[in-house]
Amino acid sequence: MPDTNDDAIPPNLASLHAGEEFLRGKAIGLVAGDGRLRLHLAITEAAMDLADVLRQFETADEDLKVIQLLGMRTFNAFGASVKLALSGYGQNSALILRDVLETVFLIDYFAGDRTLIERWRFADKKRFAMYEMFSELAGHPTMKSAFMMRPQRDGDAVIGPFMETTTLEAVVSEMGRLAIQVGEQLNLFFPADWPQGLPSRLAFAKLKQRWVATFYPSPSPAAPKSDEPGGA
């Protein structure tokens, strides 16, 4: 009986996958040489871990079950977004991050008052502006979305995946910012007396502190002038 496995994937798709894997290797090399990218991916992993741990808490609270499901949604979205970003599909990675953005807005809304689930569709204008950015760059077919299909800013759009430092940095940095928000919101729903969740919460808190110190450092106090008390 003939082996049909060789024909399971059309040759062009197999070739495309090989190209994606090559680009993934290139992307990993770029990440390895950039501590800021590694930190963004580390905080993304930590937020995903919080979602995975929270889903394991057994509860009869229907409101908490909703949060668990939303956390699982962010886990899957982050996983897909990372895979796409490292495989050269920056625009599609950003499109999935828009889903994370919508989800974390919803979790944030619930965090203030769990009785507001039925009013989830409301959001303020600042959030709409962020949503609009993801829509323009990735979610909808606009002229601005073509920017993410160009390996060079002033070059032509290309078909298929490509790896370019600026695009990778842009997508991964936005991923890190969203991961901070997701982790912060999910952390609010962990039962305070559930010890199994503590290691993941502490790991996220430690990485968050490092992330904030790296990307939003506190300004150093100005040195005293020579004519002021204590000056040289």
What's the gist of this structure?
The protein is mainly α and 232 residues long. 63% of the residues lie in helices and 0% in strands.
Describe this structure in words.
The protein has a domain at 19-122 and 161-215. Helix content is 63%, strand content 0%. It has 7 helices and no strands. The protein has helices at 11-32, 35-55, 62-86, 90-112, 125-139, 165-187, 198-215. The chain is globular, with a radius of gyration of 21 Å. The termini are far apart.
- Low-confidence stretches are 226-232
N-to-C SSE string, H for helix and E for strand:
HHHHHHH
The average pLDDT value, as a whole number, equals 82
According to DSSP, the number of beta strands is 0
Q: How is the topology of this model organized?
A:
Blueprint: H1 11-32, H2 35-55, H3 62-86, H4 90-112, H5 125-139, H6 165-187, H7 198-215
